[in-house]
Design a protein that fits this description.
Strand order of the largest sheet: 4-3-5-13-6
Radius of gyration: 23 Å
Distance between the termini: 57 Å
Structural class: alpha/beta
Oligomer: single chain
Helix content: 40-55%
Largest sheet: 5 strands, mixed
Number of helices: 10
Strand content: 15-25%
Order of helices and strands: HHHEEHEHEHEHEEEEEHEHEEH
Number of strands: 13
């Protein structure tokens, strides 16, 4: 196995065609095909399904490609720094469900490390895509929640993806709403009292199973339900329609402003916020700092509430 072979299969996967990949790599198509076959024989798995329309990556191939991309990327950093003598920025990415505390931690980490030597990426996205990003090394860390309802299904998916979850914090369930909402001044609110107001939820695309819902109580029969795909829209709907969403209750006013609040929901339901990482792969210094910033913010919120 060589780095060149890894570059070949990455190009083939990205173009979906051995012929197009060969053109991009400036080699003959037969040479590329033979190199891919030699690699498949060496590792004992079929990387591509071949047809008259091109090639598509197999399920086993997807996992192998994730590792291959990481190796090629790291090799490129070594080559640029020690052979070509150019300055290349180290990359760090985080994928998450929509949590302001996770964004806050990202901001603090970037401030401390600076952007001169690092290239950062943060992705607020769907639950399944958070897992896929960590699986494929697109992001080093993912942030999601687990509870009694979704734990078995998501844990199985994580295991199959070579991803593991690490606990961050345990939370109750809170109703997130505009401070002008009629129920905003309450210490607690029952789910039945919210029936006349629209529940707001994040769309999950093709993976719209209850198990992938970003909000707890996903199987509850809501009288009014609106789905959106970004945080800003949800906040606008909270103001314009007196809508609400369910959350962990850990909010960051420095980012979202002080016009919103979290009211405890009358429920015994609990949720565990976890971070995801590749199984058996240690966090980078950036990753460790990011997790530390989340813990630091959580502790500051806890001390304020005592």
């Amino acid at each position: 196995m060589t780095v060149t072979q890894l570059k070949y299969i990455i190009m083939a996967a990205d173009t979906g065609s051995l012929n197009e990949a060969a053109k991009a790599l400036f080699i003959s198509q037969p040479s590329l095909s033979q190199s891919v076959k030699d690699l498949e024989k060496e590792i004992g798995i079929e990387l591509f399904c071949r047809s008259s329309r091109g090639v598509s990556v197999t399920q086993e191939g997807e996992e192998f490609l994730g590792y291959a991309r990481q190796v090629v990327e790291q090799y490129g950093l070594i080559e640029s720094r020690y052979i070509k003598r150019t300055n290349v920025k180290e990359k760090f990415g985080v994928s998450m469900q929509h949590y302001t505390f996770a964004v806050h931690a990202f901001v603090e980490m970037v401030k401390q490390f600076g952007m001169d030597e690092y290239e950062f990426a943060i992705r607020e996205t769907k639950t399944y895509e958070v897992i896929e990003d960590v699986k494929s090394f697109r992001s080093e860390i993912g942030i999601i929640y687990l509870n009694d309802f979704n734990r078995k299904v998501l844990t199985k998916l994580l295991s199959e993806s070579g991803v593991e979850s690490v606990p961050l914090m345990e939370c109750g369930i809170y109703v997130y709403m505009w401070k002008g909402h009629p129920l905003a001044g309450r210490e607690e609110v029952a789910i039945e009292e919210l029936e006349d107001y629209p529940c707001l939820a994040f769309e999950q695309g093709s993976y719209n199973s209850f198990y992938f819902s970003e909000e707890v109580l996903s199987t509850y029969e809501y009288k009014r339900l609106i789905k959106a795909n970004d945080r800003a829209t949800l906040l606008n709907l909270m103001v314009g329609l007196q809508g609400y969403t369910l959350c962990c209750g850990i909010i960051c006013e420095s980012l979202n402003g002080d016009e919103f609040c979290a009211v405890k929901l009358k429920s015994e339901e609990r949720m565990d916020i976890v971070y995801l990482k590749r199984k058996g792969v240690a966090l980078s210094p950036l990753g460790e700092k990011y997790v530390a910033e989340i813990q630091k913010f959580k502790e500051s919120i806890s001390s304020m509430n005592e």
